[in-house]
Amino acid sequence: MHNTINFAGYSDLPVIGQGTWYMGENPAQRAEEVAALQAGLECGLQLIDTAEMYADGGAEEVVGQALLGRRDRALLVSKVYPWNAGERDAIAACEHSLRRLQTDYLDLYLLHWRGDVPLEETLRAMERLQQQGKIRYWGVSNFDTDDMAELWDEPEGNQCATNQVLYHLASRGIEFDLLPTCQQRGVPVMAYCPLAQAGRLRDSLFTDSRLTQIAQQKGISVAQLLLAWVIRQSGVIAIPKASSVVHVQENAAALEVVLTDEELKLIDRAWPAPQHKLPLDIV
């Protein structure tokens, strides 16, 4: 069981963090969202992932509020739109993110997905942001195997600290080549939507009798089972979103769940690992 990871300069970081997609969209939920993120920090879930895209910066504002007086306890990740990833635009986009987050640096800044800006230009911007002390590390998101190969061919490409991709039980494509390649290169993978957006992406996961039975036998929820399944992989950190204190505490408890070989075999039979290359699943 690997329940910690070396990640972006942190050793022994818990392999469950906190996602914020869909936060900041409803002012009436702000207090609850802030409380959930703070409760996550109390549970040791240090990594908080956000993006300028989420609620047009609204999620970053929620995170900024949650981190007031607590910034040093979090590993803070945000993401830049591909069209803001040019040499000058990325500097401005990062500044805007920092203002919304009420901080003067990001631990990790990711290119949200590939666009038209050449990788070498984005890398120059990332390097400049590092030199200015605005970001500690940089990485990418939604990069498939070919994209990673291109990135690693760049002079500074081996500085990439992570690749954040969709990964959950009903979307196992990365296991064929992308995940093993990242593992070989020592690049951690961040799994977004590890609960398939609470089943919205795959309704069947939360109602499946096989999963329900395993969860009941272990005295855990299906959500905890799904999280434990994602983090069974070496070099993977999951970032589920939890909008309530109860949910974030449940997510944190999944760090202690250990799945037996028999349980993993049962799950594999129902959702087999990929036998060939699949296009990267993106939401």
3D structure, described in words:
The chain has 283 residues and is of the alpha/beta class. The protein has eleven helices and ten strands. The chain has helices at residues 30-42, 58-66, 87-101, 119-131, 145-153, 178-185, 204-207, 209-218, 222-230, 245-253, 261-270; strands spanning 4-7, 10-14, 18-19, 47-49, 75-80, 106-111, 135-141, 163-166, 189-192, 236-238. The strands form two sheets. An eight-stranded parallel β-sheet has the order 3-4-5-6-7-8-9-10. Strands 1-2 form a two-stranded antiparallel sheet. The protein is globular and about 55 Å long. The two termini are 28 Å apart.
Outline of the structure:
By secondary structure, the protein is of the alpha/beta class. It has helices at 30-42, 58-66, 87-101, 119-131, 145-153, 178-185, 204-207, 209-218, 222-230, 245-253, 261-270; strands at residues 4-7, 10-14, 18-19, 47-49, 75-80, 106-111, 135-141, 163-166, 189-192, 236-238.
